[in-house]
Amino acid sequence: MKKILLFFIPLMPLLTACNGLRNETDSVIGKSGEVVGKSAGEFFSGVGEGVEKTLDCKVILSDELKNKGLSTGVYTVESSVGGAQNVFTLYLIFARDFSGDVQALVKDPAGAEKGRVTRSISDKAGNAGYTEFAFDPRTNIESKNVIELSLLK
Known about the structure:
Layout: H1 2-54, E1 58-61, H2 63-67, E2 70-79, E3 85-94, E4 98-107, E5 113-123, E6 128-134, E7 146-152
Parallel strand pairs: 1-7
Antiparallel strand pairs: 2-3, 3-6, 4-5, 4-7
C-alpha cells in the first residue's frame, strides 16, 4: 500500500495540471468556435451585401407614368425555372387611379436592348404593391442593367 501511495503522490500534481490544461483547452476551443461563428456570420452577411450591390440595376420610370401618379419603391431580380435571372419584381406606388399597359425594357450598360415585356396594370389611388415582369427565359438581367418602364398607348 505504501508503494502505491509513493507512486501516486508524485503523480498528483501532474494529473491536476492535466485537468487544468484540459479545462483551459476547452475554453480556448469554445472561444475559437465563437470567433469562427462570428466571422462566418459576417462573411455571409458581406456576401449578401455584395450581391445586392452587384445587381444594382437602374430603374427608370417614364415621365408619362410619373405624371399619371406612379412612383417606384424597391425591386428584386430573380431566376425563373430556366435559370436565367429574368423575373423583375417592382414595388409600384399609386398616387392616383391608374389603368394601362406598362412596357418594361431591359438594356445592358451600353444601351443595347436585351428584352421587353408588357404588363396590364390597374390600381386605385393610395394603393401600392409588387408587380412582376417576367421576361423571356433567355433574357438575363445582370449587374448595372437599365430597366425602363413606359406607358403603351
